[in-house]
Design goal:
Elements (H helix, E strand, L loop, with lengths): L1 E2 L2 H12 L5 H4 L2 H5 L2 E2 L1 H28 L6 H33 L8 H23 L6 H37 L1 H19 L3 H15 L17
Antiparallel strand pairs: 1-2
The structure holds fe (ii) ion (2 copies).
One fe (ii) ion binds next to helix 5, helix 6 and helix 7.
Length: about 230
């Protein structure tokens, strides 16, 4: 297990809420200093950043279908690059494929089959990220390209939501149970070291700030805009 540093907690609270004023959060600083982030909590909050990127992809798909010229290519490119660096190279490859899948594959239960399909989906995701980087790195999405871009982003969103949900609810708990308490705590430390090595000292917080900025540029920063309308009268 690892303690969250003061700076980390404050940055996290700021980036999460999208607020610039720290005052409302600072009273909770001492409590947060004592908080600990376990390996699975770490993995699941990484999924949170990834799902926010999926929300951006969904909006990019909607715009690509409605009017290809309206897709903010810079923001889409930033999202795809975040997926590459944070989700694929770090979360998927360095953590899941290197440390979690090998342990779960050895279990004598049906969960041992799960890494195979998860790995296939990681690989398909990388192909899609290559494609999005190519398209978003161009100067414009032509009329003919809007539908292909929309459909590809939608299939990625449709795949990756259930992918992360299955990992959160089946893969990670099975991995934790297989490791035992001591090894699990040690993995938490190792993940933290890997995060520092691959993403820098504030790797998670940086990714969180990046996705918050991208949401802002897509007009998605205000969470209340997605509150569902009341259902029809029965
Ligand atoms: Fe995964
Ligand atoms: Fe994952």
């Amino acid at each position: 297990m690892k303690a969250i540093a003061t700076r980390r907690s404050v940055l996290l609270a700021t980036a999460t809420a999208g607020f610039t004023a720290l005052a409302p959060w600072s009273h909770a600083k001492e409590e947060e200093d004592q908080a600990e982030v376990t390996a699975n909590e770490d993995l699941m909050r990484e999924h949170g950043v990834i799902r926010r990127a999926l929300f951006v992809y969904r909006e990019a798909a909607r715009r690509a279908r409605a009017d290809p010229a309206s897709v903010p290519l810079r923001g889409l490119l930033d999202t795809a690059r975040l997926m590459r660096r944070f989700a694929e190279d770090y979360h998927e490859h360095a953590l899941e494929e290197t440390h979690i899948f090998p342990v779960v594959r050895k279990l004598k239960s049906p969960v041992s089959q799960l890494p195979e399909v998860l790995l296939t989906q990681h690989q398909r995701g990388r192909e899609i990220t290559d494609y999005v980087i190519r398209v978003a790195g161009g100067t414009r999405v032509g009329q003919g390209g809007g539908e292909s871009l929309a459909a590809t982003l939608e299939t990625f969103v449709a795949m990756y939501g259930p992918h992360t949900a299955r990992e959160d609810t089946v893969l990670f708990p099975a991995w934790k149970a297989a490791l035992g308490e001591k090894n699990y705590e040690e993995m938490g430390e190792q993940f933290e070291d890997l995060e520092r090595k691959m993403l820098g000292a504030d790797g998670f917080e940086h990714a969180l700030k990046q996705i918050a900025g991208i949401e802002e540029s897509f007009g998605l920063a205000n969470l209340s805009t997605v509150t569902a309308p009341p259902p029809p009268a029965a």
